[in-house]
């Protein structure tokens, strides 16, 4: 995998930071993996659009991306769930959104889905 492709990948989600990369050997059947975490200080509720700083929990999400130099690429995301700050909003807890990188609940990046 070429590290020059990483800025292109993350331009769709500027609040993500790469903290680890695993590149497999050519004979390995495993995918190259990029470990990413969010750096955003807050998130917006997708229902009421209210900003929240209060973190509920963290979770891990896996996305498949386009192959790079013949190797499958997997993105392991460390994301957070937030409490909605609006008392009138029916959604009490929501997850960070990934913008153009991937829609909510997706298991593939937008460019992989295309």
Structure description:
By secondary structure, the chain is mostly beta strands. The protein has helices at 6-10, 110-113; strands spanning 16-22, 32-38, 43-44, 51-52, 55-68, 71-83, 93-95. The radius of gyration is 16 Å and the shape is elongated. 18% of the residues are buried.
Helix percent band:
under 10%
Task: Report the β-strand fraction as a percent range.
Answer: 35-45%
What structural class is derived from the secondary structure elements?
A: mainly beta
Estimated radius of gyration: 16 Å
Q: Total number of helical segments?
A: 2
Average pLDDT, all residues = 83
How many beta-strand elements? Answer: 7
Query: What summary fits the major beta sheet?
Result: 5 strands, mixed
**Tertiary shape:** elongated
Which regions contain 5 or more consecutive residues with pLDDT less than 50? none
H and E order: HEEEEEEEH
Separation, N- and C-terminal Cα atoms: 21 Å
How are the SSEs ordered, and which strands pair?
Blueprint: H1 6-10, E1 16-22, E2 32-38, E3 43-44, E4 51-52, E5 55-68, E6 71-83, E7 93-95, H2 110-113
Parallel strand pairs: 2-6
Antiparallel strand pairs: 1-2, 3-4, 5-6, 6-7
Keywords:
mainly beta; single chain; 2 helices; 114 residues; five-stranded mixed sheet; elongated; two-stranded antiparallel ribbon
Summarize the structure.
By secondary structure, the protein is mainly β. Helices cover 8% and strands 42% of the residues.
């Amino acid at each position: 995998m070429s590290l020059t492709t990483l800025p292109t990948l993350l331009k769709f989600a500027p609040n993500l930071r790469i903290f680890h990369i695993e590149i497999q050997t050519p004979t390995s059947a495993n995918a190259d993996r990029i470990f990413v975490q969010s750096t955003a200080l807050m998130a917006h509720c997708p229902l009421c659009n209210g900003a929240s700083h209060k973190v509920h929990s963290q979770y891990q999400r896996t996305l498949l991306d386009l192959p790079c130099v013949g190797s499958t690429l997997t993105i392991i995301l460390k994301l957070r769930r937030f409490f909605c700050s609006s008392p009138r909003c029916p959604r009490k807890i929501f997850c960070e959104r990934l913008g153009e990188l991937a829609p909510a609940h997706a298991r593939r990046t937008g460019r992989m889905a295309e």
